[in-house]
Amino acid sequence: MTRTTEPPGAGVGEALSFDLTSRPWIGVLRCDGSQDELSLRRLFAQADELRHVVGDLATQEFALLRLLLAVVHDALDGPGDIEEWAELWEDPDCFAPVQAYLEEHRDRFDLLHPVTPFLQTAGLRTAKDEVFSLNRIVADVPAGEPFFSARMPDVERLSFAEAARWVVHVHAYDTSGIKTGMTGDDRVKGGKVYPLGTGWAGGLGGVFAEGETLRETLLLNLVAADTEELGFSPGDRPAWRREPCGPGSDGRSATGLRDLYTWQSRRVRLHYDADGVHGVVLGYGDPLVSRNMHRCEPMTPWRRSPAQEKKLGQSPVYLPLEHDPARSAWRGIAALVADRLEDGGGAEGASRLRPRVLEWIARLVTEGHLSRRSLVRARVVGVRYGTQQSVIDEVVDDRLVMPVVLLHRQDPAYARQAVAAAEDADRAVRALGDLAADLARATGSEEEGPMSAAHAEGFDALEHPYRGWLSAMADAPDPFGHRHTWQRQVRQTVGRLGDRLVAAAGDAAWEGRIHTDKKGRTHWLNAGLADAWFRGRLARALGDPGSPDSGGSGGGAVASTDGGPPGPGPTDLPETDHAATDPKAHV
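Structure for CRISPR system Cascade subunit CasA, as requested:
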């Protein structure tokens, strides 16, 4: 350990300490709108007065919330079943046992403890006793892009509170890549450890439920041990109730939620003096394979992987469904609400599983502990890594307010219509993109740029209306009629955007030119024909909003052969050269 200087007023030989149970270090937003920084003790004592945790990044908030959930699960040793959970929900002082728990384990929550520093490895060192820049744990300093950070260009020093937050974050989201080997780690080859993957949460499409207060948020995500979809082990415990980690890994698997929420994917040692932290030693810790962890990890949706099934010769194989930064949460609502039982997977398993934490809330709704008409905010958080996962390219942070009736197990009609409505928007925007491409073809111009711009404009125009429509579903007596209302709104909104594209096309587009499509058919393509094709595609995408059969099945919209204008009918429309493409359906 690097030599430290006593703080002012410290006695001779007195070691530095930063007790996370009593010293403020977690940022919070209070219900009155003010911000504060609290210790663990005060945070749990005031949880009903706080809106939510505030981090330096959304990913830091997610990592800190999981740490808080591990504390609650372990302090309460539960909840054991849904009845115990209901008692906690009704008890305003439900977190009282946490205070005694924090006192009992106080030494393990000391960031600077000489033997068991919080989530660190005492004595961790490289063969050359190197101490690295704090850039290695501070994720808001983009690698190679210092001008996009307020910390430009390096992090020279952190307060103990900041350092504690980044220690929690680095275990969850640290990048992969080649890392300097630690003395005593048998994985070291030539002074290095070769890539073992990102921190555990870095591979997840993080999802959790937000309540009106931090107390509600913690309880909504506090999954009971009698939940069928998750495996619970009596030996499950968080990192601070385990033996301190050495420099290597024993290759063990996670024992349950408390273990996963505090998984030690890295080995860390802070270097500090009386004024704060000035360096870090960072290496690989315990790697964890995400394959088929859906019975352990509740805070991500899952997807089946045909490639992994073929490779391993087993079925099904599920992997976390990561977030796509290009798609807002509302466009990926299917991953949040799709019921595994209706996915047609049968004995082979569904193609997707919604996050188990939302499956848990579905149970609370189904068994009457939450009102069918109440709203829940689904928060989605994740990262997109770049260059072999060695840098963080983007952070995903979004919220989607949903009526909890969407999660009801025995009444899937609302969820089906919510998903179908997002698909309505997707198809309509594709039609708009095809119009932009056709207008570009009519002038002999490049097509991809106008198509992408039309997609972006269409989704932007529909995002706020969809979110409002979704929230209003809580009071909708008929989900099918509610979707018909949405289809009419989409038709009007996207139709107006199409009108603007045609009006701005210019004389060259109205004059037109000869165009040969992918099937070898030749057309004289101009703005008038492109507009006619667009109206036909829009009719196919949304059906006739006035028809009682339009979109009522909850799947794709019913095609209407007489919903378009005079000209080619929807069944005769030629394919465009470049079909509108979307990223793979992520949250």
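Residues 1-13, 143-150, 343-347, 546-587 have pLDDT under 50 and may be disordered.
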